[in-house]
Amino acid sequence: ILPFVSLITQIFDLLELTSKLGFSSIALQYGSTISQISPASILDWILTFADIAGVAAIGLVVAVVYFQSRQRKFAGLIEIFKLLNGKEQREARAMLFEAYRKYKETGNDSIFDDEFYKEYVNRTISDFNEVGALVKKGLVSTNLFLDVYWNITLRSWNASRIIIQKRRTSRNYNEYMINFEVLANDAEKYKNKRFPSSSVEPF
Known about the structure:
By secondary structure, the chain is an all-alpha fold. Helix content is 83%, strand content 0%.
């Protein structure tokens, strides 16, 4: 990089002197100096400039990728907010918790498939499964999501785990609502690390 620095220094000296003496005088004074720059020095400068340009291009690519990633995650966070914070979603969770309480009282897991509760149960577990897919794909930061939603995720999973497992068996499909389960496992780890004594019973 020394040839590059040397050439830049000469250029600045030339510009400063030009402002004082005029271009014609400078042409005479610096003509011999410029002619003395060897082809090897020029080649070194060109290669150095190419290296600098390459680094700049790589930096630009990294910056674009970084900001695109942040934009995608912000969009994903907005989508999660829609899936979990709407009035209908909150009502659905409340009805799921009510069905769970009745299940705990009676031991009858068919309550989750009761016509009155089924729609609310399905909406809640589908929403969390979709959220789990967004987190899995990296569209939302796992830690950012858990900072806000770890408790409601675990409460909703604990309330619906019985019916999810029942449907997996009846359908012979262990991947049913798997993204929700993975999300709940992450929430469980988060809870055990930060809030080990907190209750996550869906009441």
